[in-house]
Amino acid sequence: MSKFINFIHAAQSWARNLPLPVAIRQYFVLCFEYIYNMFHYFDPSRPSTKTRIERYIQQGRQETQRLTDAGHRRPVAIITGANTGIGYETAKSIALAGYYVVMACLKEEKPELSRDQLIRETGLTDSFEVIHINLVSLRSIDAFVNEFKKRGLPINLIIANAGVMMLPKYIQTEDGLESQFQINYLGHFYLITSLLDIIKQSDNPRPRILILSSIVIHFADKFDYDLILDKNKYSYNHCYFTSKMASVMFSKVLARRLEGTGITVNSLHPGVAATGLYRHLPNQIFWKYFNRYTNINAYEASATSVLLALSPDVKDKTGLYWAHETIQDPNPVLLDSKAQEQLWLFSEKLITDIKSKWN
């Protein structure tokens, strides 16, 4: 780890633990993130982001070539939200490493246009496929799983990338849940657990599971189930925080349950990036210019995902939380194994209750 990143992580940990109101701690944690965004270009201890990503792609390509030369099938990746932002840049890099990329995307966002653009940019005509999914609907996730299974493909990589942030008002999904919680967390929980049978049978390379979280996991002192269950307690920011905290806890439990299989599970903060994630916030003109001058771009923000997806240097790392392409300590609230297991059981019960209402 570079001294600069070590400083940023230590400073954020210090800020998170200050004996001050949560809102003030949030401010300090974010300030150090913006310091990273603006000054990481000058870190002399590591090459540029472009050089690092290209190295990860080359490492992945070499491994893919070695496996296919030995007669193994081409590896397959599933990436949710691959039609835009960080997911788009990640899908491009994964395909350039030799993977067949299934873009799990919302039909209404016309992901076929993004697929065609990826083909033009990479020159890879046989590396991208779109299968529609809507994470606000367990029925839609079931349809995606069934459609994918028809292809008889392995799953060597799955990246839970899709997400929404800070919806200004409470929006209930067709399954009766708060939208941020279902899109960011429960939909991915259901998707990944529904595909575990295929994931466990896949090999060469052994599967990697990546779950995107956020810096906001440092912004709360507890995991509050009332924010999930009580519509009257809706808070556009705290419900977002909860969904991203749940993602880290899920990754911890899943990593434990897959111990000994060779399958790795990691969660990550991609960076505070200038993407469409800000589209629901007020004062869009402000955010447009603020993002331009303070945030990294989507390509830079894809670096941690690409590292964890492709690099042989991390192939045995599991159950960890990452930021800035390095391991970072998450909020201590998320490290309680009993609380993690409680969330898993809570999630299973939610899904069971939803499906029990189907005709």
Plain-language structure description:
This protein has helices at residues 3-16, 22-39, 49-69, 85-96, 111-122, 138-149, 179-194, 196-201, 226-229, 236-257, 284-294, 298-301, 303-310, 337-356; strands at 76-80, 100-105, 128-132, 157-160, 208-212, 264-269, 320-323, 326-327. With 359 residues, the chain is an alpha/beta fold. Helix 1 (3-16) runs antiparallel to helix 2 (22-39), helix 4 (85-96) packs across helix 5 (111-122) and helix 10 (236-257) crosses helix 14 (337-356). The protein is built from 14 helices and eight strands. Strands 3-2-1-4-5-6-7-8 form an eight-stranded mixed sheet, sandwiched between helices. The protein has one domain: NAD(P)-binding Rossmann-like Domain (Rossmann fold). The longest helix has 22 residues, at 236-257. The N and C termini lie far apart (54 Å).
Summarize this entry quickly:
The protein is α/β, with parallel strands linked by helices and 359 residues long.
Summarize the SSE layout with pairings:
Elements: H1 3-16, H2 22-39, H3 49-69, E1 76-80, H4 85-96, E2 100-105, H5 111-122, E3 128-132, H6 138-149, E4 157-160, H7 179-194, H8 196-201, E5 208-212, H9 226-229, H10 236-257, E6 264-269, H11 284-294, H12 298-301, H13 303-310, E7 320-323, E8 326-327, H14 337-356
Parallel strand pairs: 1-2, 1-4, 2-3, 4-5, 5-6, 6-7
Antiparallel strand pairs: 7-8
Helix pairs in contact: 1-2, 3-13, 4-5, 6-7, 7-10, 10-14
Task: Determine the mean pLDDT.
Answer: 94
Might you state the CATH topology name? Rossmann fold
Shape summary: globular
Could you name the CATH homologous superfamily?
NAD(P)-binding Rossmann-like Domain
Q: Give the helix level as a range of percent.
A: 40-55%
- CATH class assignment: Alpha Beta
**Poorly predicted runs:** none
How does CATH name the architecture?
3-Layer(aba) Sandwich
Percentage beta strand:
5-15%
Q: Determine Rg (CA atoms, Å).
A: 19 Å
For the secondary structure, the number of strands is 8
For the largest sheet, list the strands in their spatial order.
3-2-1-4-5-6-7-8
Integer count of domains: 1
SS summary, helix count:
14
Strand and helix order: HHHEHEHEHEHHEHHEHHHEEH
- Largest β sheet strand count, sense and barrel closure: 8 strands, mixed
Distance between the termini: 54 Å
Structural class: alpha/beta
